[in-house]
Amino acid sequence: MYPLNSRVAKPSSGSLTVHCISLGCPKNRVDTERMLASLGLFHPVDDAAQAEIVLVNTCGFIAPAIQESTRTILDTALRIRDVAPRPLLVVAGCLVSRFGSELRKALPEVDLWLKVREEPLLSEKISALLEKRIASLDAPGGRILSTTPSYAYLKIGEGCNHRCRFCAIPSIRGKLASTPVPALLDEARAILDQGVSELILVAQDLTSYGRDLGLRQGLETLLSGLNRLPGLRWLRLMYLYPAGLTPRLLRFLADLGPPLLPYFDLPLQHAHPEILAAMGRPFAQDPGRVVDRIRRHFPGACLRTSLIVGFPGERPGHFKALYDFVARVRFNHLGVFSFCPEPGTPAATMPGQVGIQTKTRRREKLMTLQTEISAEILAECRDQDMDVLVDRSSPEWPGLFEGRVWFQAPEADGSTYVSGEDVRPGMMVRARVQDTETYDLSALA
Fold it and tell me: Helices 181-192 & 218-226, crossing angle to 10 degrees?
């Protein structure tokens, strides 16, 4: 759950008061920021009961996200039920795209439902509901940034052309629809003009960028433009499909150099070719090949991946191959998820469904291994001087700040806790690592 950040300027009296909750992935957060910008001048409030408009942007990817989104809608509706006049409750996003008709019947408390493709109509719909015109806001890049002053996401496309058998995203967000390069460069400039140091590129698959626009090397074209923008200190790529990390692209990335970070987020999902083939993954061969390919071009690369245990048909031998793969590769960051049979996906009805206890046991075993690997990797950082991008001050300890070194992505990886004179959110400071834990660092500037 992402709260609205204080970078929104306090407008004049008479503007709308808005309470916003954004759930799910960074791509969803960008959608939220665009919806907020479309509202015009508004005053953000922390309490839903004090708002005129309450916006909940939902996630509907897997069962736990669906449960969180549904619970959030119910809790929010209960919070504002007895307020007079009652705020308008607007619910948008993936959950609505996936289960809109059922939600409308079950939750009559919601005033406005918006599927993902309908989100650009938010201002128009609310204007009709409020019976007044909402003034247009000349927001840089058409967004109200809700992240900390140090970083922002740049969503370069929507949808996905892959048809992984466990994934509901194509049915929710549709086919690949890349944003043209000039528009992305304009948006990036507007973000950097606000003092942001790090841009994080997100999409369902960055390596597919531009194919629907007829660009043969779309990602290369975009990165060439972004890498030259003034004020950009770090450029991070998230969601790189293994099949798209060709030797040509890796050579290009290595030649491009800073501010591009050697950070590779690879959604491998599994390591055994039989399970990968059953998943319908676009890269169903030995995933160790793409790892070796990356490390040949970037010997010190940071590798992050996500894995699924308990996919239908996963036998003990398949899991052992996955466990051995993780032990051999030694990922810097690893997320492990138990398979969820999502309704409407082919995997939900596949034979060989794995029991909950078996999935839980396999997940815990992998995460225990990863805690050991992570602690060992971070221990090597002790007594090193490193650049720390400061995100926020610590709410618990005056003078302590939370930030990240280059191999830590926000909201996904660990943090670096830093203290020192004149350290402020948004700054890049040089600090010496004093101590390390399983996922976090402590440093002194």
Answer: 30
Token pair recorded at residue 409: 């992505």
Task: Kindly list the distances between the CA atom of residue 381 and the CA atoms of 89, 119, 386, 416, 443, in Å, as whole numbers in the listed order.
Answer: 47, 44, 9, 11, 10
Predicted local distance difference test score (pLDDT) of residue 109? 82
pLDDT at 184: 94
Do the bridges between strand 416-419 and strand 441-444 make them parallel or antiparallel, or are there none, so unpaired? Answer: parallel
CA 224/CA 435 separation, integer angstroms: 37
When pLDDT is cut at 50, 70 and 90, the band that residue 55 belongs to is very high
Parse the chain into domains and list their residue ranges: 2-140, 142-379, 385-444
Write down the CATH superfamily of domain 142-379: tm_1862 like domain (3.80.30.20)
- The third-level CATH classification (topology) of the domain covering 385-444 is OB fold (Dihydrolipoamide Acetyltransferase, E2P) (2.40.50)
Q: What is the mean pLDDT of the chain?
A: 88
Q: How far apart are the first and last CA of the chain?
A: 31
Name the most confidently modeled range: 36-40, 70-74, 360-364: 360-364
Is omega for the bond preceding 398 within 30 degrees of 0, making it cis?
A: no
